[in-house]
Amino acid sequence: MKQNMLFVIFSFCLLMGLSPLASAAPSMQGSTGNINTPAADVLRPGQFDVGYYHLDGVQDISFATNLAKNWELSAVGRKSDKGDAAGQVNLKYAVKQEGVLTPGLAVGVEDLAGEEKRSVYAVASKGLPLGFRLHVGLGNGRYDGAFAAVEKRLVPLARGGVFPDMSIIVENDGHHMNYGLRMAVAAGLKASAGWMDGKPFVGITYNYY
Hints:
By secondary structure, the chain is mainly beta. The chain has a single domain (2-208), classed as monomeric porin ompg (Porin, Beta Barrel). Helix content is 7%, strand content 55%. The chain contains one helix and 14 strands; from the N terminus they run H-E-E-E-E-E-E-E-E-E-E-E-E-E-E. A hairpin with a 2-residue loop joins strand 13 (189-196) and strand 14.
C-alpha cells in the first residue's frame, strides 16, 4: 500500500512538471542553475552542457561537465564589446539528491582561482505542486548573504526539455532582481531571454543527457 502511494505521488510530480532536470541549463556563471544563481542540480555521469549569454555588451561562453559522481565542474569566459576579457572555474557537489518529498542540497565554489570574485555557497532546490520549483541559498562573495529563485513551468504536461516545454524564472541573486523565460527549442537545446538588473539579456544553451 505504501509503495503504491509513493508511486502515485511520484507520477503526479512528473505530470506536474517537477522533474529536477526538466528545465536544467547553465546559468550565466556556468554552473547548472537559473539566470545568475545556482540550483542544487549537478550534471550526471556522461552529461555536459554549453551555454552562451549576451548581456549589456558582454558575452559569456560556458562549459560544464560531470567530474565524478555528484560533482560538477564548470567554466565560463567573458568578453566585452570593448575587448576586456575575464573568466572563472567553478566546482559544485550535490550533498543530497532531490526526492519526491525532500529537497536537493548542493554546495559549491565559484571562481576557484579568484580571478573575479570567489564565492562559496550552499543551495537547496525543491519541486512544488502546479509546476513550481523553489531554490534558496546562502553564500559569500558576490552573493553577500541570501539568494533565491522561483521557476514556474508554463506547459506542465510538456515533456521536459522538449518543445513546447518552457519556464518563467524570477530570482534575487543577493543584489538584484532578475526575470527570464527559458524555452526548449529542441531536445536539449534551450533559448532564454529576460532582464538582469534591469538590462535585457538573451541566451542559448545545450544540454547533452
